Amino acid sequence: MNYTEDNRIAFQAVQTEEVSRTFISKVFMWMAGALALTAITAFLVAANFETILPYFFSETGSSPLLWVVIFAPFVLVLVMSSAVNRLSMSVLSLLFIFYSVLMGVSLSFIFLVYDIGTIGTTFAVTAGTFTMMSVIGYTTKTDLTKFGSLLLMALIGIIIAMVVNIFMRSAAMDYIISIIGVLVFTGLTAYDVQKLKNYSAQIGEFDNTAGKMALMGALTLYLDFINLFLFLLRIFGRRK
After folding, report:
1. Domain count, the chain
2. Is the pTM of this model over 0.85?
């Protein structure tokens, strides 16, 4: 191997590292932007709840708009995940922004149920935990794939338990579910960050496809953060 070949390999290594950093930074920029949009929307809806309430409830019961707000986020996640290759980057971006707003409307209830100081404290704890696990996921040499599979199975178990507890209405079971939920999404944060890092190392250039994957990665981390926050709030939140 000659000097020119060494330079070429070194240049490719540097270029790959730059592309990887660009990808990861885009992921966290999208995630941070979505969280900010959700938080602002939730606060504004809660602040004007008396004005907005008639749009969600009528004298005959729940309005169609309420059901749209409840189920549309799930539909949007399915559409974005299944059609990511067919959608343009601009359409995918608009769907993510719309999703963030809808989630803000859905989460506005926490300002009505929990003390705002508790919400702020829980958010800070969530941010600190999320940051710590992101660093661990990005820097650890341990392969978290097996842990990720176990955590995903645990997540399915949590969902089933939560559905069952809707009918049981057990406070003790709800507390246990919340604790397990915190552990699961704490672990999933590290797993998802490592998965995104591994993907970014395989990108030759930051093209349109990589941009879409960065946005979808942001959606994954956004969901990790939101769920971690909600489970922590259920444990430590002080109700009004």
Report:
1. 1
2. yes
